[in-house]
Write a structure and sequence with these properties.
Homeodomain-like_sf; 19 helices; Arc Repressor Mutant, subunit A; SANT/Myb; chromatin binding; 359 residues; 4 domains; TTF1-like; mainly alpha; globular
Length: 359
């Protein structure tokens, strides 16, 4: 189908389809339109929202049949192929050869991408591990002190899902800081940072980085690492324990501390240059969109933001993430309803040509 026809035909089933990117519409036309028409003939409406038990069972049945058909060992390899880099090429070839997209969606009157995300949630072995033991909670606090908000890394170390460890730490933190938070509300500052607050922030960051470096040095058998606690530049902005820093500063929320620290670092690393203004700013946005599009990832958690910092300049990863967020919010209509690939497709197809013309 041509794009206009695809939009017209899909609109019957997806009312907001014209707000989606052209790439997403083409994918939906290929994966979903025939299925939608088939369900319509049967008098079955296309569904959104919470999956029923019957639909969950159908997804499990579809996955089981596809595994039998292809000989792929298990659902984790099928749905989280990137976890198995040595087998990735073979698995992807089998998925294409045996029409994975169609098979996983059989008998389920929903858009394919929603079915796919639901399947990933059902079959992620790290999702259903029961209550956290006392030992696990202590490990979680220890890993957070070292790795900060790097939930992907912490989830791998604890064999729990990203969401699970993030929520559990939030629960632990809430219990630990409930009294402190009440006091903080009374003294919180929302205005410009004072010189005293900035000094407190810098000392707080120094304290947590030195503590982390000592822990890492103690683990190492290298005499050199015991002798020399020099700090790699990456430690200045990667996964700092912001709730701990919030406590040390005393008059700012953790998010304010994080934003201020990234502002200080960016200024230092770029020697005060304005990387995101004028011609340099246009080029930075163009590079960022192109690099994200080339990555072809399904989720923001899979993006290597560290690698992407080169697209803008020598800056912290949080700076790049903040610029992407601003780009997404200001340029992509109804971005909250879109998946990460749909957002990237829209930026690439609609915003990129406009930026290149301005440049």
């Amino acid at each position: 189908l041509d794009l206009d026809t695809a939009k017209e035909e899909l609109e019957e089933f997806i009312p907001h389809v014209r707000e989606m990117s052209d790439s997403s519409i083409r994918k939906m036309a290929g994966r979903d339109l025939t299925r939608f028409k088939h369900f319509k003939k049967q008098g079955i409406a296309i569904k959104f929202g919470r999956f029923s038990q019957k639909e969950n069972d159908q997804i499990k049945k579809n996955i089981k049949e596809f595994l039998s058909l292809t000989g792929i060992e298990n659902a984790e390899k099928l749905l989280f192929t990137s976890r198995y880099p040595e087998e990735k090429e073979t698995i992807n070839r089998l998925k294409a050869e045996f029409l994975f997209c169609g098979k996983i969606a059989e008998g389920i009157p929903r858009p394919w991408r929603l079915i796919y995300y639901r399947a990933r949630k059902i079959f992620d072995p790290n999702n259903y591990k029961g209550r956290y033991t006392k030992e696990e909670k202590e490990k979680l606090k220890k890993y957070y002190a070292i790795h900060g908000n790097d939930w992907k890394k912490i989830s791998e170390m604890m064999s729990r899902s990203n969401l699970s460890v993030a929520m559990k730490y939030s629960e632990i933190k809430s219990g630990n800081y409930v009294i402190f938070s009440y006091c903080l509300i009374l003294a919180i500052n929302y205005g410009p940072w004072t010189k005293e607050e900035t000094q407190k922030l810098m000392h707080a960051v120094e304290d947590v980085i030195r503590k982390r470096s000592k822990l890492e040095a103690e683990k190492s058998s290298s005499e050199k690492s015991r002798r020399n606690l020099s700090i790699d530049r990456e430690k200045l902005y990667q996964k700092l324990p912001w709730t701990e820093i919030e406590t040390k500063v005393g008059t700012r929320y953790w998010r304010q501390c994080k934003q201020k620290w990234n502002s200080i670092l960016t200024s230092k690393m770029t020697k005060g240059q304005q990387l995101y203004k004028g011609t340099k700013g246009l080029q930075a946005k163009i590079n960022l969109i192109k690099r994200l599009y080339e990555m072809k990832v399904e989720d923001a958690n899979e993006v290597n933001w560290e690698e992407l910092s080169n697209a803008i300049g020598d800056v912290p990863r949080a700076y790049v993430q903040a610029k992407f967020y601003k780009l997404k919010v200001s340029c992509v209509p109804l971005w909250q309803r879109k998946t990460f690939p749909e957002i990237i497709d829209y930026l690439y197809e609609e915003k990129l040509p406009e930026l290149e013309e301005k440049l």
